[in-house]
Amino acid sequence: MHSKVRTVLVTGSAKRLGREIALALARAGWQVAVHYLRSAEAAASTVSDCLALGAQAQAFAADLADEAATRALFPCVVQHFGQVDAIVNSAAIFEHDSAQSFSYSALEKHLRSNAGAPIVLAQALHNHVTERSAQGVVVNLLDQKLWNQNPDFLSYTLSKAALEAANTMLAMALAPQVRVVGVAPGLTLTSEYLSAEKFAALHQLSPLGRSSNPEDIAGAVKFALDNPAITGTTLLVDGGQHLMRFTRDFSMM
Questions:
Q1: How deeply is 120 buried, as exposed, middle or buried, from its count of CB atoms within 10 A (0-12, 13-18, 19+)?
Q2: pLDDT digits (tens, 9 = 90+) for 11-42
C-alpha cells in the first residue's frame, strides 16, 4: 500500500480513452490532473466525476503542439497539487494522410503533439522527482498498428513510432528515477471514420474474438503505474490484433 496520495497528469483526459483512464486512476486513489485542449466542458465533467469518486482533481488547458505551453503545463500541475508522481500521455492527433498526400506540415503537426510533448513532460517529471529524491512513472499510449503496419495514417503512425523509440531511450536515460512504459491498444473506441455496426464487426477481428475496451486499457495503465519492475517495454492490450495481418487501417477496411 502507498502511504501517501499520488498525483497523475493524464493528457487528453476530457474525453474518450483519456477520460476512462483518469476515472480508473481516481477510483484507485490517485489525485488527477485532467489535461485538455479545447474541451473545457468535457474536462469539467471528468473533474466532477473524479471528485465524486473521492479523488482530488483539477482541469488544466494546454496546446501540446506548442512547446512553451507544454513546458508551462507541468509547473501548473505541481503548483496546484504540490507534487506529481506520474504522467499518462494519452492525448494524440489522429488525422488521415497517405504516402500520396504526405507533407512536412502534416508530419510536424503529429510529431509535436504525439511525440514531442510526451518527451518534454517526461523530462519535466524526471527533474521534479530528482529534486524530491522520489520515483516517477511515465506511461505512453501507443498503437497496435506499430506491430501490424499498414500504409494509412502515415504521419500519425510515424509519430507513434517515434514515441515507441523514445519509450526505450527515455527508460534508459531517466532510470532509476523514472520508469517509462508503453501501452498499445487495439481498436478500442469508434471514431468519425466508423459506423457503430462496422466498429462492432471490426472489434471482433482478433484471435480472442474481441479487441480492447476502455477498461482493459485503463487496467493496463494502472498495472504499469503500480509495478516497480517494468520499464522500457510496451504492453500490447489488443486481444491479439497485432498478430493478424491488416493491409489497411480499420477505418479504411
A1: middle
A2: 999 999 999 999 999 999 999 999 999 999 99
| Residue indicated by cell numbers 517526461 | 122
- The CATH homologous superfamily to which domain 7-252 belongs is NAD(P)-binding Rossmann-like Domain (3.40.50.720)
Residue 75: is the preceding peptide bond cis (ω within 30°)? no
Task: Tell me how far the alpha carbon of residue 227 is from its chain's centroid.
Answer: 18
Per-residue burial over 160-183, b = 16 or more CB atoms within 10 Å of its CB, e = otherwise = bbbbbebbeebbeebeebbbbbbb
**Phi/psi class of residue 153: alpha, beta or left (left: φ > 0; alpha: ψ in -120 to 50)?**
left
- 168-180 confidence digits (pLDDT tens): 999 999 999 999 9
**101-146: pLDDT as tens digits:** 999 999 999 999 999 999 999 999 999 999 999 999 999 999 999 9
Set of cell numbers at residue 45: 465533467
Q: In terms of Cα–Cα distance, which of 181, 233, 163, 224 is closest to 24?
A: 224
